[in-house]
# Entry
Amino acid sequence: MCVTMTATMFAGCGSKNDSNTSDKNTGDTSAAEDTADAADAASSNLSDDGKVLNIYCWNEEFKSRLEDHYPGYEKVDDTTGKIGDVTVKFHITPSDDNAYQNNLDSILPGNADAAADDKTDLFLIEADYALKYTDADADVAMKLSDLGITDTDLSKQYQYTKDVVTDANGDLRGASWQACSAGLIYDRAIAKEVLGSDDPADVQAAVKDWDTFNATADTLKKAGYNITATVNDTYRVYSNNVSKKWVEDGKVQIDDNIKKWADDSKALVDKKETSTAELWSDDWSKGFFTDSPVFAYFGPAWLINFSMHADEEGSIANEGGWGLVEGPQGFYWGGTWICAATGTDNPTLVKDIILTMTTDDAVMKDIAVKDSDCVNNKDVLTDLASDDSFGSAVLGGQNPYEMLAAGAENVDMSNISIYDQGCNESYQQAMKNFFDGNASYDEALDQFKKAIVEKYPELTVD
# Structure
């Protein structure tokens, strides 16, 4: 978060692995030593011949993290750097129209046979499609154990961030520096006017579950305000709290919580307490400014800091006017995972980058302080949460890390599937007709079913 404290930049390559793999127990260390020995044996079978480290991603986020926090990284230009005698090349393909995934799909299967300077070494993925690339049969992302990375190395990371990139055999094939638990971000001024208080405890009581949330929406409407900018603001909260997968045994199923989102959203739209605007549209982002009637958004740390126009005069963020609470249900949104590409010819460097950028305490703290990321390190977040000098300017000095750390502990990834992105997007698109009064729910559902069968011919829909 935008903070009032400073941290010392990590400045030494090599010591990070020692601090993360050292055995802190005074008892029997044989199990840990056996694991470390097995990891060393696996990584010793890989060869470091590469002179070019090729990194594939969809935006510049990881590039900036590496430039700012990886010891010894030297920037050459906007897409090139140096680490020692290895040239680092970033290949950035935007996600629009599935272009990024299409690019990965064309290069990763044949990566082992690619020319030396063309081999992909690292690639980045998101949770919505992670299982596609961490699948054991696809074998395009290396098992981290084959790089020599152990469970002990990753012991401070939140479990859900591991579950996202764990294959069906239980092997981990990626790691993230982020823990993107999220909450309800509310306008403090509106809270004071309508609810009588902007204190997080009081606001949480007014949005503690969906029935209370919807009742508060009625109260806000009477005062001239909308509970959210759009129905799409709440979708991930509902979809993160399902009790079954989108697809089971090749059949698409609608979870009760997904159906509840449609019912609750229709009621809010009919009462003009929210809209059907698309996320990231101008109509959605108008609520970031002080002359807006929007009470709340739902999102993680990155939305607060990088999407709400904090550096622009007239924005609520610029005036420190937002607050953060858990909201009706805990959830997460986003995150970026680093994967080692099968066939890399820079395994030692790849291992070091993954360990440095996702496990090193000093680097994690530096990322949290300087980049306002909610980092994937329990110890670092615990320290920041208890630091009275640490607060977010955007959140009016509130320290959000205790809440975000608790949320990260509770994220449940047991119901994810490789079809989540397509199903979620198609359902939201179909339901817009229902919300706008252009179709009944059943008619909108039929539209969804047709879109899914067209997108995934191998699936069946009742």
